[in-house]
Amino acid sequence: MREKLSSKGAVAVAFIALILGLIIGFSIGYTLLITEQARLNRQIEEWKNKFEQTQKQLTEVERAYEKLEREYKILEEKYGELRETYEKSSEALKELETQAEAFRQQARELFYYRHFTLYNYKTRNYYHIWYKVNALDYYKYRFSVETHVPARLKDRLTKEVLVEAVNSWKDPESSVIREIAYDLIQISGKDLELLANLALQLVHQIYYNATDYTKYPLETLVEGSGDCDNIAVLLASILRAADMDVIILLVETRGNAHAMVGVALPNPPDDLLKFGRDSYWYYEYNGERYYLFEATWTRLGEKWINPASPKAFQYLGSMVGDNPWGEDLKVVDVVEVP
Fold first, then answer.
1. What is the CATH architecture assignment of 113-336?
2. Which of 128, 234, 273, 308 is the most buried (most CB within 10 A)?
3. What ranges make up the beta strands (E) of 37-120?
4. Mean per-residue pLDDT over the chain, rounded
5. Rounded CA gap, 141 and 218, in Å?
6. Global confidence as pTM
7. 206-253 pLDDT, tens per residue?
8. What is the mean pLDDT of residues 142-155?
9. Which residues, listed in sequence order, are joined to residue 257 by a DSSP beta bridge?
Protein backbone atom coordinates (compact mmCIF):
# COMPACT_ATOMS: atom_id res chain seq x y z
CA MET A 1 0.00 0.00 0.00
CA ARG A 2 1.53 3.33 -1.10
CA GLU A 3 1.54 6.10 1.41
CA LYS A 4 1.98 9.70 0.30
CA LEU A 5 4.52 11.86 2.01
CA SER A 6 3.43 14.92 3.68
CA SER A 7 4.62 18.25 2.41
CA LYS A 8 6.93 18.61 5.40
CA GLY A 9 8.56 15.31 4.67
CA ALA A 10 9.15 16.29 1.05
CA VAL A 11 10.80 19.48 2.11
CA ALA A 12 12.99 17.61 4.53
CA VAL A 13 14.09 15.18 1.80
CA ALA A 14 14.85 18.00 -0.57
CA PHE A 15 16.84 19.81 2.08
CA ILE A 16 18.85 16.72 2.87
CA ALA A 17 19.50 16.17 -0.83
CA LEU A 18 20.66 19.77 -1.14
CA ILE A 19 22.97 19.41 1.82
CA LEU A 20 24.38 16.22 0.40
CA GLY A 21 24.86 17.90 -2.99
CA LEU A 22 26.66 20.81 -1.38
CA ILE A 23 28.86 18.46 0.61
CA ILE A 24 29.69 16.40 -2.46
CA GLY A 25 30.29 19.53 -4.58
CA PHE A 26 32.46 21.05 -1.89
CA SER A 27 34.41 17.84 -1.60
CA ILE A 28 34.95 17.69 -5.36
CA GLY A 29 35.85 21.38 -5.54
CA TYR A 30 38.19 21.05 -2.59
CA THR A 31 39.84 18.05 -4.21
CA LEU A 32 40.25 19.97 -7.47
CA LEU A 33 41.56 22.98 -5.60
CA ILE A 34 44.11 20.87 -3.73
CA THR A 35 45.16 19.22 -7.02
CA GLU A 36 45.52 22.59 -8.76
CA GLN A 37 47.40 24.01 -5.81
CA ALA A 38 49.82 21.07 -5.94
CA ARG A 39 50.29 21.61 -9.67
CA LEU A 40 50.89 25.32 -9.12
CA ASN A 41 53.37 24.55 -6.34
CA ARG A 42 55.26 22.24 -8.67
CA GLN A 43 55.34 24.95 -11.38
CA ILE A 44 56.44 27.50 -8.81
CA GLU A 45 59.27 25.15 -7.75
CA GLU A 46 60.27 24.56 -11.38
CA TRP A 47 60.30 28.28 -12.12
CA LYS A 48 62.19 28.89 -8.92
CA ASN A 49 64.85 26.38 -10.01
CA LYS A 50 64.96 27.90 -13.49
CA PHE A 51 65.28 31.34 -11.97
CA GLU A 52 68.16 30.20 -9.77
CA GLN A 53 69.89 28.54 -12.74
CA THR A 54 69.33 31.63 -14.86
CA GLN A 55 70.64 33.84 -12.06
CA LYS A 56 73.71 31.60 -11.78
CA GLN A 57 74.26 31.73 -15.54
CA LEU A 58 73.81 35.48 -15.45
CA THR A 59 76.47 35.70 -12.73
CA GLU A 60 78.83 33.56 -14.84
CA VAL A 61 78.12 35.69 -17.91
CA GLU A 62 78.78 38.85 -15.91
CA ARG A 63 82.09 37.44 -14.70
CA ALA A 64 83.01 36.34 -18.23
CA TYR A 65 82.05 39.78 -19.51
CA GLU A 66 84.18 41.47 -16.85
CA LYS A 67 87.11 39.18 -17.82
CA LEU A 68 86.62 39.93 -21.51
CA GLU A 69 86.42 43.62 -20.71
CA ARG A 70 89.74 43.43 -18.84
CA GLU A 71 91.32 41.44 -21.68
CA TYR A 72 89.91 43.88 -24.21
CA LYS A 73 91.52 46.77 -22.38
CA ILE A 74 94.84 44.90 -22.32
CA LEU A 75 94.53 44.10 -26.04
CA GLU A 76 93.58 47.70 -26.74
CA GLU A 77 96.72 48.86 -24.99
CA LYS A 78 98.82 46.31 -26.87
CA TYR A 79 97.15 47.29 -30.12
CA GLY A 80 98.06 50.89 -29.42
CA GLU A 81 101.66 49.86 -28.80
CA LEU A 82 101.71 47.69 -31.93
CA ARG A 83 100.13 50.46 -33.96
CA GLU A 84 102.81 52.84 -32.78
CA THR A 85 105.51 50.27 -33.56
CA TYR A 86 103.96 49.62 -36.99
CA GLU A 87 103.91 53.31 -37.81
CA LYS A 88 107.56 53.63 -36.80
CA SER A 89 108.46 50.49 -38.76
CA SER A 90 106.50 51.74 -41.76
CA GLU A 91 108.43 55.00 -41.67
CA ALA A 92 111.71 53.09 -41.32
CA LEU A 93 110.72 50.80 -44.23
CA LYS A 94 109.95 53.78 -46.42
CA GLU A 95 113.33 55.22 -45.53
CA LEU A 96 115.02 51.89 -46.36
CA GLU A 97 113.13 51.65 -49.65
CA THR A 98 114.26 55.16 -50.50
CA GLN A 99 117.84 54.24 -49.67
CA ALA A 100 117.56 50.93 -51.55
CA GLU A 101 116.28 52.69 -54.64
CA ALA A 102 119.11 55.21 -54.39
CA PHE A 103 121.53 52.28 -54.02
CA ARG A 104 120.05 50.55 -57.09
CA GLN A 105 120.31 53.75 -59.09
CA GLN A 106 123.98 54.12 -58.15
CA ALA A 107 124.75 50.40 -58.54
CA ARG A 108 123.52 50.53 -62.14
CA GLU A 109 126.65 52.53 -62.87
CA LEU A 110 128.94 49.94 -61.25
CA PHE A 111 130.46 46.87 -62.81
CA TYR A 112 133.24 44.38 -62.13
CA TYR A 113 135.98 43.74 -64.67
CA ARG A 114 137.72 40.37 -64.98
CA HIS A 115 140.63 39.48 -67.22
CA PHE A 116 142.00 36.01 -68.05
CA THR A 117 144.87 34.70 -70.16
CA LEU A 118 144.46 31.45 -72.09
CA TYR A 119 147.08 29.39 -73.89
CA ASN A 120 146.07 27.20 -76.80
CA TYR A 121 148.65 24.43 -76.61
CA LYS A 122 147.69 23.19 -80.08
CA THR A 123 148.23 26.48 -81.94
CA ARG A 124 150.64 27.92 -79.33
CA ASN A 125 148.63 31.12 -79.31
CA TYR A 126 147.82 33.25 -76.28
CA TYR A 127 144.42 34.83 -75.81
CA HIS A 128 143.46 37.65 -73.50
CA ILE A 129 139.76 37.62 -72.67
CA TRP A 130 137.96 40.06 -70.41
CA TYR A 131 134.44 40.35 -69.09
CA LYS A 132 132.24 42.96 -67.51
CA VAL A 133 129.75 41.95 -64.81
CA ASN A 134 127.04 44.37 -63.70
CA ALA A 135 127.12 44.94 -59.96
CA LEU A 136 123.37 44.32 -59.58
CA ASP A 137 123.74 40.92 -61.26
CA TYR A 138 126.42 40.00 -58.75
CA TYR A 139 124.42 41.35 -55.80
CA LYS A 140 121.48 39.13 -56.72
CA TYR A 141 123.58 36.10 -55.78
CA ARG A 142 125.71 37.63 -53.04
CA PHE A 143 122.65 38.78 -51.05
CA SER A 144 120.92 35.40 -51.43
CA VAL A 145 122.20 34.29 -48.05
CA GLU A 146 119.68 31.46 -47.62
CA THR A 147 121.53 29.46 -50.29
CA HIS A 148 124.94 30.03 -48.72
CA VAL A 149 124.77 26.85 -46.68
CA PRO A 150 127.73 24.80 -45.44
CA ALA A 151 128.89 22.25 -48.03
CA ARG A 152 129.14 18.73 -46.67
CA LEU A 153 129.81 15.28 -48.11
CA LYS A 154 126.75 13.00 -48.29
CA ASP A 155 124.30 15.85 -47.71
CA ARG A 156 121.06 16.23 -49.69
CA LEU A 157 120.88 20.00 -49.22
CA THR A 158 124.49 20.38 -50.37
CA LYS A 159 123.69 18.47 -53.57
CA GLU A 160 120.57 20.57 -54.21
CA VAL A 161 122.49 23.83 -53.76
CA LEU A 162 125.33 22.61 -56.01
CA VAL A 163 122.88 21.76 -58.80
CA GLU A 164 121.10 25.10 -58.42
CA ALA A 165 124.42 26.95 -58.46
CA VAL A 166 125.76 25.16 -61.55
CA ASN A 167 122.53 25.68 -63.48
CA SER A 168 122.47 29.38 -62.69
CA TRP A 169 124.33 29.81 -66.01
CA LYS A 170 120.81 29.93 -67.51
CA ASP A 171 119.83 33.00 -65.43
CA PRO A 172 119.65 36.41 -67.13
CA GLU A 173 122.08 37.69 -64.49
CA SER A 174 124.67 35.01 -65.43
CA SER A 175 124.98 35.93 -69.10
CA VAL A 176 128.75 36.31 -68.59
CA ILE A 177 129.03 32.53 -67.99
CA ARG A 178 127.44 31.98 -71.40
CA GLU A 179 129.84 34.54 -72.89
CA ILE A 180 132.81 32.64 -71.51
CA ALA A 181 131.47 29.35 -72.89
CA TYR A 182 130.95 30.96 -76.31
CA ASP A 183 134.52 32.35 -76.34
CA LEU A 184 136.00 28.98 -75.39
CA ILE A 185 134.04 27.29 -78.16
CA GLN A 186 135.45 29.78 -80.66
CA ILE A 187 139.04 29.51 -79.41
CA SER A 188 138.94 25.71 -79.28
CA GLY A 189 137.38 25.36 -82.72
CA LYS A 190 134.79 23.05 -81.05
CA ASP A 191 137.54 20.59 -80.04
CA LEU A 192 135.85 19.44 -76.83
CA GLU A 193 138.99 18.20 -75.10
CA LEU A 194 140.75 21.47 -75.84
CA LEU A 195 137.67 23.39 -74.78
CA ALA A 196 137.63 21.51 -71.45
CA ASN A 197 141.32 22.26 -70.89
CA LEU A 198 140.82 25.95 -71.70
CA ALA A 199 137.97 26.11 -69.16
CA LEU A 200 140.28 24.45 -66.64
CA GLN A 201 142.99 27.02 -67.36
CA LEU A 202 140.52 29.82 -66.72
CA VAL A 203 139.30 28.54 -63.33
CA HIS A 204 142.88 27.76 -62.29
CA GLN A 205 143.36 31.54 -62.29
CA ILE A 206 140.86 31.79 -59.41
CA TYR A 207 142.66 32.24 -56.09
CA TYR A 208 142.10 29.36 -53.68
CA ASN A 209 140.42 30.57 -50.49
CA ALA A 210 138.74 28.24 -47.97
CA THR A 211 135.00 28.94 -47.78
CA ASP A 212 132.45 27.11 -45.64
CA TYR A 213 129.55 27.54 -48.07
CA THR A 214 128.80 27.00 -51.74
CA LYS A 215 128.86 30.09 -53.94
CA TYR A 216 127.25 30.78 -57.29
CA PRO A 217 129.58 30.82 -60.30
CA LEU A 218 129.12 34.56 -60.76
CA GLU A 219 130.18 35.17 -57.15
CA THR A 220 133.36 33.14 -57.56
CA LEU A 221 134.09 34.86 -60.86
CA VAL A 222 133.60 38.40 -59.52
CA GLU A 223 135.38 37.77 -56.21
CA GLY A 224 138.22 35.92 -57.95
CA SER A 225 138.46 33.42 -55.11
CA GLY A 226 136.88 30.29 -53.71
CA ASP A 227 137.64 26.81 -52.50
CA CYS A 228 137.29 23.43 -54.22
CA ASP A 229 133.48 23.27 -54.45
CA ASN A 230 133.19 26.94 -55.49
CA ILE A 231 135.73 26.54 -58.28
CA ALA A 232 134.27 23.17 -59.30
CA VAL A 233 130.83 24.79 -59.59
CA LEU A 234 132.26 27.58 -61.77
CA LEU A 235 134.00 25.05 -64.03
CA ALA A 236 130.92 22.82 -64.28
CA SER A 237 128.72 25.84 -65.04
CA ILE A 238 130.96 26.98 -67.92
CA LEU A 239 131.01 23.47 -69.40
CA ARG A 240 127.23 23.11 -69.06
CA ALA A 241 126.81 26.46 -70.82
CA ALA A 242 128.94 24.90 -73.60
CA ASP A 243 126.42 22.01 -73.70
CA MET A 244 128.81 19.44 -72.22
CA ASP A 245 127.74 16.62 -69.91
CA VAL A 246 129.27 17.03 -66.44
CA ILE A 247 128.98 15.71 -62.90
CA ILE A 248 130.43 16.96 -59.63
CA LEU A 249 132.26 14.38 -57.56
CA LEU A 250 132.27 14.76 -53.78
CA VAL A 251 135.35 12.88 -52.68
CA GLU A 252 137.78 12.20 -49.87
CA THR A 253 141.48 12.76 -50.50
CA ARG A 254 143.93 11.73 -47.81
CA GLY A 255 141.24 12.17 -45.16
CA ASN A 256 139.97 15.55 -46.39
CA ALA A 257 136.66 16.45 -48.06
CA HIS A 258 137.11 17.65 -51.63
CA ALA A 259 135.11 18.39 -54.81
CA MET A 260 136.09 17.58 -58.38
CA VAL A 261 134.42 17.65 -61.78
CA GLY A 262 133.89 14.89 -64.32
CA VAL A 263 133.15 15.54 -67.99
CA ALA A 264 131.92 13.16 -70.69
CA LEU A 265 133.91 13.33 -73.93
CA PRO A 266 133.22 11.65 -77.28
CA ASN A 267 136.73 10.14 -77.14
CA PRO A 268 139.18 9.49 -74.32
CA PRO A 269 141.48 12.46 -73.70
CA ASP A 270 144.85 12.03 -75.41
CA ASP A 271 146.30 15.56 -75.32
CA LEU A 272 147.73 14.93 -71.86
CA LEU A 273 149.71 11.97 -73.26
CA LYS A 274 151.74 14.49 -75.24
CA PHE A 275 152.78 16.15 -71.99
CA GLY A 276 154.32 13.20 -70.23
CA ARG A 277 151.28 11.31 -68.93
CA ASP A 278 150.95 7.62 -69.62
CA SER A 279 147.29 7.25 -68.62
CA TYR A 280 144.11 9.13 -67.87
CA TRP A 281 141.54 8.85 -65.09
CA TYR A 282 137.79 8.62 -65.28
CA TYR A 283 134.81 7.74 -63.09
CA GLU A 284 132.10 5.54 -64.60
CA TYR A 285 128.59 6.63 -63.71
CA ASN A 286 125.30 5.48 -65.24
CA GLY A 287 127.20 3.71 -67.99
CA GLU A 288 129.13 6.87 -69.00
CA ARG A 289 132.80 7.66 -68.51
CA TYR A 290 133.41 11.02 -66.87
CA TYR A 291 137.02 12.14 -67.17
CA LEU A 292 138.39 13.81 -64.05
CA PHE A 293 139.15 17.49 -63.53
CA GLU A 294 141.08 18.96 -60.64
CA ALA A 295 139.43 22.40 -60.52
CA THR A 296 141.80 23.96 -57.99
CA TRP A 297 145.29 25.18 -58.78
CA THR A 298 147.64 25.47 -55.85
CA ARG A 299 151.23 26.43 -55.25
CA LEU A 300 153.86 23.81 -55.91
CA GLY A 301 155.97 24.30 -52.81
CA GLU A 302 156.78 27.99 -52.68
CA LYS A 303 156.58 28.36 -56.43
CA TRP A 304 153.52 29.45 -58.34
CA ILE A 305 153.14 28.25 -61.92
CA ASN A 306 151.10 30.28 -64.39
CA PRO A 307 148.25 27.90 -65.42
CA ALA A 308 148.09 29.56 -68.86
CA SER A 309 151.65 28.69 -69.84
CA PRO A 310 153.34 25.75 -71.62
CA LYS A 311 155.19 24.86 -68.42
CA ALA A 312 151.92 24.31 -66.50
CA PHE A 313 151.03 21.23 -68.59
CA GLN A 314 153.92 19.32 -67.08
CA TYR A 315 152.07 19.14 -63.75
CA LEU A 316 149.31 16.76 -62.76
CA GLY A 317 145.99 18.55 -62.41
CA SER A 318 146.50 20.90 -65.34
CA MET A 319 144.50 18.86 -67.89
CA VAL A 320 141.31 16.85 -68.16
CA GLY A 321 141.98 13.21 -67.28
CA ASP A 322 144.51 14.12 -64.57
CA ASN A 323 144.22 12.88 -61.03
CA PRO A 324 146.88 14.40 -58.78
CA TRP A 325 145.55 12.35 -55.85
CA GLY A 326 146.14 8.97 -57.43
CA GLU A 327 144.79 5.98 -55.52
CA ASP A 328 144.13 8.18 -52.47
CA LEU A 329 141.00 9.47 -54.19
CA LYS A 330 137.73 8.01 -52.85
CA VAL A 331 134.39 9.04 -54.38
CA VAL A 332 131.79 9.56 -51.65
CA ASP A 333 128.87 10.95 -53.66
CA VAL A 334 127.96 12.09 -57.15
CA VAL A 335 126.00 15.22 -58.00
CA GLU A 336 124.13 14.89 -61.28
CA VAL A 337 123.78 18.15 -63.21
CA PRO A 338 120.72 17.99 -65.50
1. Roll (3.10)
2. 234
3. 111-120
4. 89
5. 8
6. 0.75
7. 999 988 889 999 999 999 999 999 999 999 999 999 999 999 999 999
8. 84
9. 252
The alpha carbon dihedral of 157, 161, 167, 172 has a sign of positive
**Phi and psi for 305 in degrees, rounded to 5?**
-105, 130
Kindly list the distances between the CA atom of residue 85 and the CA atoms of 77, 82, 310, in Å, as whole numbers in the listed order.
12, 5, 66
Distance between CA 47 and CA 271 in Å, rounded? 107
In sequence order, which ranges of the chain are alpha helices (DSSP H)?
A: 7-107, 135-142, 156-166, 175-188, 192-203, 217-223, 228-241
Of 169, 175, 186, nearest in space to 129 by CA = 186
Strands (E), 103-243: 111-120, 125-134, 207-208, 225-226
Rounded to the nearest 10°, the torsion over CA 317, 323, 325, 330 is 140
Residues belonging to the chain: 338
Dihedral through CA 21, CA 26, CA 28, CA 33, nearest 10? 160
Q: CA–CA separation, 214 vs 52, rounded Å?
A: 74
Tens digits of residue pLDDT in 186-205: 999 999 999 999 999 999 99
Residue 231 has a CB neighbour count (10 Å cut-off) of 29
CA distances (Å), origin 322, targets 12, 39, 75, 282, 329 = 149, 109, 70, 9, 12
Q: Which residues pair with 293 in a beta bridge?
A: 261
Residue at 175: amino acid letter: S
What three-state secondary structure class fits 289? strand
